[in-house]
Structures are given as structure tokens and as C-alpha cells.
Design brief:
By secondary structure, the chain is of the alpha/beta class. It has a single domain, classed as Glutaredoxin, CATH 3.40.30.
């Protein structure tokens, strides 16, 4: 199903990932500096404390040990404030940092910002990006439904083939 108000534009594999600096629950997050430590996989989601987003993040948390064993460090991103991220993380205890994109600029750069919707405009749809240490996108996935959930078994296999 597609939505007229959500027209994601996935950055294809092989392209250079746009750099960004944002607050995270681990402190300032600067993508290109972070990539010096190795590949980074991040998943975007609409917002904290929602049923579907919490479910997707729990699935990502369950997949994190397998992803990290393959060399992918994991993070998640939404437009929620850093304070709300801290409260959410304190309750959920995810094994990865939450990145705050309060203006939705990074969501726009990466093609998963929701536009033209009375309630959701400016929020992030669900996406996954895997970026290598050189800043190249190795894997990108955006569901046409902003609340779509990745198949994490397939994601792990894709990461296994790429790293």
C-alpha cells in the first residue's frame, strides 16, 4: 500500500551517506566521526512510546547481538527530543543509542521524512540504513508504509553478506 502523504525516496546502495551531527542518548553523534569506529546500522521510526514503534525497536534490540557480531553497530533515530529519548530508553533499556532529529532535517536528507500529513508531518517513517566506515551506503530499506517493519532475519542475512 502506498500513501499520497508519504513518498519516501531511498538513497541507493553505493551512494555517499549524508553527514550529520545530532544529539543522542550517548552524547553528540557525528556520523563521519562515528564511522571511524566501523560500520553503523540505524533504523528510523516515527516516535517513542507508540505501540508499533516500540515493537519494531524491540525487534531491533533482539537482532542487535547478531548485527554486532557481524560488525554493525546499531542505533535508532526519530524526531523526538533528546529528553523524551532518555525517558524512553530508561523505560525500555535498548542496547543501542537513540538519536534525536527534532527538526527532521536528517529524515529529509535520507528520504524518510513524512510530508503532507496533518498529524504526522515532519516525523520519520520506518527505514534502515547500513553505512560502511568510508561513508558509503551498503544497504538501504524504506517501507512504503511509514510504520512498516523490516524482516529482521532477512536484514541480518543481508548484513552478513555485506560485512
Amino acid at each position: 500500500m502506498t500513501y499520497a502523504w508519504y513518498q519516501p525516496v531511498r538513497i541507493p546502495e553505493g551512494e555517499q551517506a549524508p553527514d550529520f551531527r545530532l544529539d543522542s542518548t550517548d552524547g553528540e553523534f557525528h556520523l563521519y566521526s562515528d564511522l571511524k569506529k566501523g560500520p553503523r546500522l540505524f533504523m528510523s521510526y516515527m516516535g517513542n512510546f507508540g505501540t508499533g514503534c516500540t515493537y519494531a525497536l524491540k525487534q531491533l534490540a533482539d537482532a542487535t547481538p547478531d548485527l554486532e557480531a557481524l560488525g554493525a553497530r546499531v542505533a535508532a533515530m526519530s524526531v523526538n527530543s533528546i529528553d523524551l529519548h532518555r525517558r524512553f530508553l530508561a523505560r525500555m533499556d535498548f542496547p543501542f543509542p537513540l538519536i534525536s532529529d527534532p527538526g527532521g532535517e536528517v529524515a529529509g536528507l535520507y528520504g524518510f521524512r513524512i510530508t503532507k500529513h496533518m498529524l504526522y508531518e515532519g516525523m520519520a517513517g520506518r527505514s534502515v540504513y547500513l553505512i560502511d566506515s568510508d561513508g558509503k551506503i551498503l544497504y538501504s530499506w524504506i517501507h512504503p508504509d511509514p510504520a512498516g517493519i523490516p524482516n529482521f532475519a532477512e536484514l541480518i542475512e543481508s548484513v552478513r553478506a555485506l560485512l
